[in-house]
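pasting for ref
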Amino acid sequence: MTMRIDVVQPPGWAPPKGYANGVLVKDPSRFVYTAGQVAWDAEQNLVGEGDFVAQFDQALANVLAVVQQAGGLPQHTVRLTMYVTDKQAYLDRAKELGPVYRKHMGNHYPAMALVEVKGLLEPGAMIEIEGTAALP
């Protein structure tokens, strides 16, 4: 059986920009749920301190490294939740974030949420990303 991942878009709704409103997984065989990933390198040193785009780049790469280790590809990602300590930093750097996102994900846009939080566990972390992937 072949797994299919379809975007769910209610009729009459304006298309979302940079995410999907919903994702339907048909015939799934395996799911992988990543822990929240910050901008750590392999030795758990925070990279990109003070640089939102650099931290976004590393955190997303870390999510995808877990998905790939489980046998998945970026396009198997069905949900991303981003926790940011400063929503305005995200908005201010949005044009720079797009190319970084596409470097990792191409034109694949899963269901996503962005949540502003008071702080993250790792000192200096500006963003934490968790993901869910449906693997064939």
